[in-house]
Design brief:
By secondary structure, this protein is an alpha/beta fold. The protein has 10 helices and 15 strands.
């Protein structure tokens, strides 16, 4: 029985697929052999690969690759949820992003995925009371990826941030599972208040490019926010909102808008 449990624990279809894709990628483009070996094939699991990739992206003259890698390795070793969330994020990107054709792409190339994984390590540090170090991670993620997520924010699994440029998620924001958002989305406050002041995004929400959701308001599950909208009021579940300020313009159009990624408004306006 113990052997069976060990075997099942070592079975990781996401990582095994990444390994297979890495070998194929080297065959097709040998010039990437060094990058792919160091980022994927030299590691025994996804967590180690993520820690290495994070260290390469976030290191600077202020903190070395080795230190950042040790921080990330420690986080992944002590909090298995970080690795589980990363796997869910990879699958989410593969399923929802038409430009993603392999599991290896988010790990190597997609800054939205990489920024979220670094945020997750920063959030773990925040929960451990290591706030200055978590702020440092936030700063480097913002500098390296153009994504600014406060380490105290709570972000669920299965997150897809397409393109990811200029994403801002505030300190008291909560983002549920299976949420998709495009570039230039802001989940922000409305003033200088220092209490619970940021949006709560329920599961399955789709947020279009450039949308701003401001204040301590709830966006109901499986709703859609049209690109460029400014949302200042709560949104009921399974509705579509659009405009400045945003108003309800119709139903969500499908049961899982964040997975379908359908952003068209068909006669709602």
């Amino acid at each position: 029985m113990a052997q069976t449990k060990t075997h099942l624990a070592e079975f990781d279809p996401v990582w095994q697929r990444i390994i297979s894709e890495a070998k194929t990628a080297i065959e097709e483009e040998p010039l990437l052999g060094g990058l792919i070996h160091s980022s994927v094939l030299h590691h025994k699991n996804l967590e180690r690969a993520l820690a290495y990739r994070m260290s390469q992206k976030l290191a600077s003259g202020e903190m070395s690759e080795q230190i950042i890698r040790e921080i990330a390795d420690d986080a992944y070793a002590k909090e298995p949820e970080l690795g589980a969330a990363a796997r869910a994020d990879i699958v989410a990107v593969f399923e929802r992003d038409a430009a993603c054709h392999r599991f290896i792409q988010p790990l190597l190339y997609f800054k939205g995925f990489q920024a979220i994984q670094a945020y997750r390590v920063g959030h773990w540090l925040w929960e451990q009371g290591r706030k200055d170090l978590s702020y440092f991670i936030q700063m480097r993620v913002s500098e390296a990826f153009g994504v600014d997520i406060h380490p105290a924010a709570v972000v669920g699994r299965g997150i897809m941030i397409d393109h990811a440029h200029s994403i801002v998620i505030g300190e008291t924001a909560v983002v549920g599972d299976n949420v998709s958002m495009l570039h230039s989305v802001t989940l922000g406050g409305t003033g200088k208040e220092d209490d619970d002041r940021h949006p709560k995004i329920d599961n399955g929400v789709l947020i279009g490019a450039g949308a701003k959701v401001l204040g301590n308001i709830r966006i109901g599950h499986c709703s859609r926010i049209a690109a460029g909208s400014v949302v200042l009021e709560p949104v009921p579940p399974m509705k579509t909102v659009a405009g400045v300020p945003a108003r309800i313009v119709g139903e969500a159009g499908c049961s899982q808008p964040s997975i379908m990624m359908d952003q068209l408004l068909r006669g709602e306006l």
